[in-house]
Design a protein that fits this description.
Elements: E1 6-10, H1 17-28, E2 32-33, H2 41-48, H3 55-71, E3 77-80, H4 86-95, E4 100-105, H5 108-117, H6 128-134, E5 144-148, H7 153-165
Parallel strand pairs: 1-3, 1-4, 2-3, 4-5
Helix pairs in contact: 1-7, 3-4
Length: 172
């Protein structure tokens, strides 16, 4: 399956964006970009210290992701971004109007458990509550799908592919 969609894999920390994103990109036959790589060093330092980012911290990060998505318009791609607020998704759409979102969703206890077992990531579990407090799920007028993160990565990826098949193809 190949798609010209540019897909933003979104959700709170620990939902598996960095795991599912590359699997989804491979399944769709498009490139993957790790959203964390677009963060300026100052943002990483803040999060590593357990300090939540402000919207002002996020705008340049979201703009950089949006530029990548815009460059992939008509070609397809997958990029990860928490995209927790509607305003963040609107910012991404301002740069790349055709993006669609795959919102990885799950029970807080499951996500916290997964976060506690991952190695070498700068986002501490202490910030999970702020992530859930900030989260504004996709609204009916937003192009995207919600995908439950229970199960193994292959199962989650297949659910995402199936859900994306139901979306209209973007206009080129």
């Amino acid at each position: 399956m190949s798609t010209p969609h540019v897909v933003v894999v979104m959700g709170v920390a620990g939902t598996g964006k960095t795991t599912i994103g590359p699997l989804l990109a491979a399944r769709l036959g498009v490139p993957y970009a790790e959203g964390d790589d677009f963060h300026p060093q100052a943002n990483i330092a803040k999060m590593s210290a357990g300090t939540p980012l402000t919207d002002d911290d996020r705008w340049p990060w979201l703009d950089a992701i949006g530029r990548w998505a815009h460059e992939r318009h008509g070609l397809g791609g997958v990029v990860s971004s928490s995209a927790l607020k509607r305003s963040y998704r609107d910012r991404l759409r301002a740069e790349a109007p055709g993006v669609v979102f795959v919102h990885l969703t799950g029970d807080r206890a499951l996500i916290e458990d997964r976060m506690s077992h991952r190695q070498g990531h700068f986002m501490p579990t202490a910030l999970l509550d702020s992530q859930f407090a900030t989260l504004q799920p996709l609204e009916a007028d937003e192009a995207g799908v919600s995908v439950d993160v229970s199960g193994d990565p292959g199962e989650i990826t297949e659910r995402a592919v199936t859900a994306l098949q139901g979306l209209a193809q973007p206009s080129l």
